[in-house]
Amino acid sequence: xxxVSQVKCLHLPLRGAALLLPAAVVQEIVPQVAVQPxxxxxxxxxxxxxxxxxxxxxxxxxxxxxxxxxxPSLQQRVAVIHDIDNAQLLALRLFAxxxxxxxxxxxxxxxxxxxxxxxxxxxxxxxRTLIPDLIAISALVRDLS
Length: 145
Fold this sequence. Notes:
With 145 residues, the chain is mainly beta. 12% of the residues lie in helices and 48% in strands.
């Protein structure tokens, strides 16, 4: 059996940082759309958006990670990802257009890492990048569906 030497990932820009997710987790990238707000929501809960008739929870990873919020722009996108624990979709608001990257173990072993509640911080493309703990994020949103 051959070992996988690289994984296709999406480098998803936030303001002041980025996310790195395996491409298989990301269903699609869509333009920023109108979001229905939710009363008494947590700061990271961006409301609900409609995607092909399905209600999708929107998360602000910037708020979750205590980063400066993005100002609206034409380049903003939403990454629609599979919530691996709850069999639903989640929408992550992005600061700009994502990039595809092939990441190997050496790319991450050479970078300095730091663990936080929501994943592992690494350096990727000279940018502070979070490899999110999708199970922890899934547990956070479980009660909101």
